[in-house]
Amino acid sequence: TSAVRTTSVTLKALGLDSYNLGVYNGVWGGNGDVVESVNPATGEVIGAVQQSNGSDLDQTLQQATKAAKVWREVPAPKRGEIVRQMRNALFEKIEPLGKLVALEMGKILPEGIGEVQEYIDIADYAVGLSRMLNGKVIPSERSGHMMMEVWNPLGVVGVISAFNFPVAVYGWNSAVSMVCGNAVVWKGAPSTSLTSVAITKILAEVLERNSLPGAICSLATGGADIGEGIAKDKRVNLVSFTGSTNVGRKVALTVQERFGKCLLELGGNNAIIVHNDADIDLAVRSILFAAVGTAGQRCTTTRRLFLHEEIHDTFIERLQKAYGQIKIGNPLESGILCGPLHTKSAVDAFEQGIADVKKQGGKILYGGNALRNLPGNFVQPTITSISHDAPVVHREIFAPILHTIKYANIEEAIEWNNEVGQGLSSSLFTTSPEKMFNWIGPSGSDCGIVNVNIPTNGAEIGGAFGGEKETGGGRESGSTSWQQYMRRQTCTINYSGMLPLAQGIKFE
Ligand code: UN1
Predict the structure, then answer these.
(1) Is the pTM for the entire model greater than 0.90?
(2) Which residue ranges does the record assign to the Aldehyde dehydrogenase domain (predicted)?
(3) ipTM higher than 0.90?
């Protein structure tokens, strides 16, 4: 069939086979379990990857530690040049990579290509950044002294990423961490291992072509045991973890116990507030992308919608109409807006969520059913009407369920926006400058991402990405996020030939 043909053409274009090794540290290997990748839209097996076991990880960390020592001596702008070559190699394969993401993760093709583009964008950013890892000169209180802030590489960075962004999240970490001078050991989700292998092949080719150690971009595919191995190991100077709040808490405690560094990107429970003065057209279109895009499986997906009472009823009508137009189906077909959920257990979680909505006094305004008659993991994008404080509303369900809630005044809506444990993304639709600036000020949203008149998802790479509270506090991608991948050193140089002490202390 054409689906089978697409799969084999895609794998071939990326140098993959139906069976692949899932460990790379200069050489390819893998002695762990063989894990099959399943197309979530059809249930068909796409290919298989032999994952790493404990000793593969140990070997890989050893190689990465060695590689980091070579890499840190390469001047930062030259490291940027390597990232530039990687960016070009990714760009050449953007089509098949985007297709592989659609096949293996299940998001629609434009979004699959979009996240490869996101990697390309951050690589561009990192190339420029490689000439701007600037320190500071600080005025010293002592004469004949000079103080400087100098940034040095950390060593080895472990990146543990999730199934929902199998390319972009690794890209943010890898590109920035590489120009900062670190070796990276990557563990993606076991269910998207083909994508991890395809990306690593592209990077490895560039490193090897430049006679650099391949272990600068190491891969150790695997499950929770490999993740735990990375968190526990002292050789990993920074653990960058993207995933659930529950697992993130465990990772944070494990890494903290050995005083390692942690960068956490955990759950979101993002809200949009639509005020009575908003551009309704813009808001409806935004919510469609924010709540249904990626079938509700972005950490930035809109899960709560606060509607001002004056526009509530007409807005719900408009939204129901828009949901009625959404085409659900195979993510590789054009015109499809909603692909499958990634796994069967996600469909169970969706159904549990719907049951909880009904139990907790909510109503289903649209959808509400899993499409069990289809071969893949499909569900109906769903709109509910429920109280802001129902327990189910405070839980992140990784599925396209949008809870709608009516409010009377904007202070109340902002309070509800902030009352959940998570603090990733938020957006206000309004045409009032006063409300906009209040929203981004101290009494506004408490999230890491605070938008106006755009969706909660689809952030650009130039800003710092991440959130507060149970979202973990980490910031990735742009702005000063790079500083987390480096050691800050305060250096004081005495060129006076004398020894004046700080704070005017006399010690003689
Ligand atoms: C994620 O869901 O883990 O802002 C990352 C966005 C994307 C990244 C999402 N740029 O939706």
Answers:
(1) yes
(2) 33-490
(3) yes
